[in-house]
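3.2 Worked example (two chains)
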Amino acid sequence: MAAKNKTWIVFLCALAMLCVLNGTEELKTTRTYLATGNWYPPNAADLTSLLDQYFNRAQAKELPGKIVGLIGPHAGFSYSGQCMANAYKQLQNPSLAGNIERVILMGVSHSAGFYGAVVSSFDFDSTPLGSIPMDTGIAKELAREKFIRVDNRIIQYEHSIENHLPFLQRALKDKTFKVVPILFGALDKKDFKTMADAIKKYVDDKTLVIASTDLTHYGANFDYTPFKTDLEANLTKLDMGIINLITRLDFDDYYEYRRKTGITMCGFVPVGVLVELFADKAHKATLIDYYKSGDRNKDYTLSVSYASIIISETKGEKKNMTDTAIKEDESPAKLTKQEQNVLLRIARDTLDQYLENGALAKDLEKKYEISANLKVSAGVFVTLREKGDLRGCIGSIVGAEPLYLGVQANAVKSAVRDPRFLPVKKPELEDIDIEISVMTPLQRIEDYKKIRLGTDGVIIKKGYYQAVYLPQVATETGWNLGQFLGSLCQKAGLPSNSYLPSQNKGDEKMEFLIFQAQVFGEK
């Protein structure tokens, strides 16, 4: 009888433990990392060593404020690892990273076709470096939102999220944080904001949002060959077109760009959701790094492009194009002395070659050290002076191509296409000095008295009439504001007093747009 009672006691204890496991203490589940493919080393020692190499080569950047978002690639680390590390390096600055406790990590499904997004019910994610707790509570809440559901299988076999995890573990190794993986499928334009609004509920000052994407996949294997010549320059131009729209946090133009170009950017949806997420607040996006897999051997017939971008908070409200008061301490994005020298060399070498044989050099990235800053589209003017006198000046206020290509094109235009002068001849070059002015984005103002002479360049528009002066014009002439604007009106073909309020009472009022410039030259 005693033996029978003992058996019952053991059974009841086991049953009680099972009830506990199935109740408040459920068994924990872990998403295992992918052991297939060559994404990264499969053991902790080799992976740690590789990450250390990438992070040791990465440089800390100056950013305008606390980091709230990050965009990075997800290819094999041998291709995109340095691009990733260059962005994640910035999270090691405590004043920029803040106290990150939650990471919302948005990827794209490469194998499953579905609409909307999926989350998982896993308790942990993992890499060879160890496990990372998932924020299961938020995942459950997200699964109740429109277009979002739970699907562990799709999450399990996708690398676009996983490939960011080792970089998070390396960058935030002294922090305790949870991840919320969200994997996206297809999404119509109207539903990007719906998705962003759903995620926004869980974004606080301790949350980092990441979007995972590679850029252009070029070549016959990707069924994408929109151009067949000048592959390096055309790929850069195509990539920088969408990068510039991302950094402007401009969703409508971002969406339209893919429709027009068909750009094969795999993470278009998660990046679009991130752009919508931060577009209505005071945020600034900064390009950290950009390159192409074809840069290795200069063979772009099969190439994938990679970029990393940081989204930061900025002080005050987001700027408004209707009437922007410029703060006194604002200035153009600064190019380093080395970057300035590269642009001046491109301009000088271009003129030497063009005036010699009428040809433009190709594959500039093979000859010069073209940094990420020089690949950003920006307005640029090239000014030529012969023994101190103006000899040509042509450029564009708004960038339509990467900066280094704009310098090359405008150097030639200033030399041979400025209608005010005869074309420059090769023997003149030894007496010509080159000056480059790199523009900031245009800002519209209502009150012309806000113009800062010597700091602001100005465009005036009235009906079909338009003219521009660079910032240095006021400094070089010594004009006061009235003389400056009066001359600008005459340049546009208008009476010199056309800028005054008394002359702007009809339907065609004068518009004032200002910009700044970083000006540097050979002298």
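3.2.1 Second chain
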Amino acid sequence: MSTSPIDAYLARLHEEWLGDRSGAVADYIPPLALADPDALGIAITTTEGHSYEVGDSRACFTIQSMSKPFTYGLALRDRGFEAIDAKVGVEPSGEAFNSISLAPGSGRPLNPMINAGAITSTSLVAGAGPAEREGRVVDFYGRFAGRPLEIDMEVYESERDTGHRNRAIGHMLRAVGVLEDDPDEALDLYFRQCSVSVDCRDLSLMAATLANGGVNPATGERVLARDLVDRVLSVMTTCGMYDSAGEWVVDVGMPAKSGVGGGVLAVLPGQLGIAVFSPPLDRHGNSVRGVEVCRQISTDLNLNLLHVARSSRSAVRRTYSVAAVPSRRRRPEAQSSALAELGARGVVQILHGDLVFAALESIVRGIVERAGDVDVEVLDLTEVTELDLGAGRLLIGLAESMAAAGRALAIVLPPSGELLAGLDTEHLEVFPDLDRATEWCEERLLAAHGAAPVPPSRLTLAEHRLARGLSADLLVALEEAVVPRRFEAGETIFAVGDPADAAFLLLEGEVTIELEIDGARRRLATLTPGFSFGEFAFADASARPVDVRVETACECLVLTLDAFERMGEQTPALQAALLRNLLIGYYEIIGRATREAGSLPGGR
């Protein structure tokens, strides 16, 4: 069974950082001092609502300062931009989270991510009284998390009893007129909101909801308007990590927020949300492991928002099975019948546009989920304009996990071949065109399942498709009408523009029918023993429309146009039988074309 390369990556990341013992657990709030310093949880949730988790991702802890962007968003929704901007600025303070930073003149807190600004945002949440305001805040967080959340009362009571500096900030805000009422109510709600209990998975979904423009990707509910989300993310980018915000933007490049409970959440707009839980903090009050894990994820997967390509949504143009659209290799009936059954175990996806991590993640997830039903996957990248580094690494990880599970991944690259430059393609099968990749897929399925006998390398005339149903007398007459010829590998049997004066019955070897289109040689079909070519000579004796090149040394029986016309006079029953068998072959071609058309989007 294939495992997700994202799960494997997070497991390696967790193991790598679990041994980091730097930092110290917050102890100014007594219950926080009891946190396990060895706890480490990581969760990633995409804007499609799929979560990846590792370690202590379901361990509960309090949200603390990670509540600030959400309460700020709620206050913006309740009061509007103008009213909030009159009370709270949006400028980075460059100072610690509990600094007393007020703008000269107005007395406004510099931004809503420091405690002074957060207390002000909390005071602006609408409600008829303390209980209603508390209920609205907790419910709002829960709608981001996709489940009801609760306040950890032990932590709340401790924060309330020890929050002297925050009380001082609150009374200072009242003194300068930023808080218009008694600060105790706003402070109490602030202590309560910081004490809401969450886990890593909750936080990653809360971050993913912001990444998804305010719509919870798991529930589908719009929690916050997009223009308000844009403001929240902007402030998180410049102010969310306090006095290390600049370093964070340079190294990680995602809007983020930390909390002294050990949590860090980060948002990559349009793609995903990340959450890490690890209690030991650095001197800025940020989780040591949380910061480093986010930094490494951003680097490894190229998630810095300044690197994001033009599109981050699904990049699948078309998906079909090998049974629906086989390769242009024409096979013996036993193999064709086997592939009609086995072909569903080979899936082709044609991708387009810019592939970033989140776009490829959904494709990879689908490949992993159908591991029990599909052996071989083909990804056609010829219409992909850019493969983000993070997406490329995800692709390589997928190939490795599939190879370990006995599955296989093939890639079709555009002519430049630069999409995978610098990546290890050891476990990837790389092809220059989709048709050759599909043929490889078919060969692998036939070999893996042993579903069809190996066809004979040479046929007799009686075994040829064109001789189906012929009586002994008619078969003798056909043998007398044809002339055997051998051709060597690489030889051209006929070319575009040559006179169309004969048909060829292939008994041994392989030939390829080609045509030059836009300066490139395109394979129309590769024929194996039992097939014929050049039959249009019997319908239109003008020039050949295609080239026929010998793949492996072959033997053909040549039926000239003159011999075919004499046949109509001397043995008309033979001519009629040949035309009937030719029509059967054409119906097979039409049936294949119909199935291919049906696999197109909107096809029936």
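3.3 Remarks
The chain has a mean pLDDT of 90.
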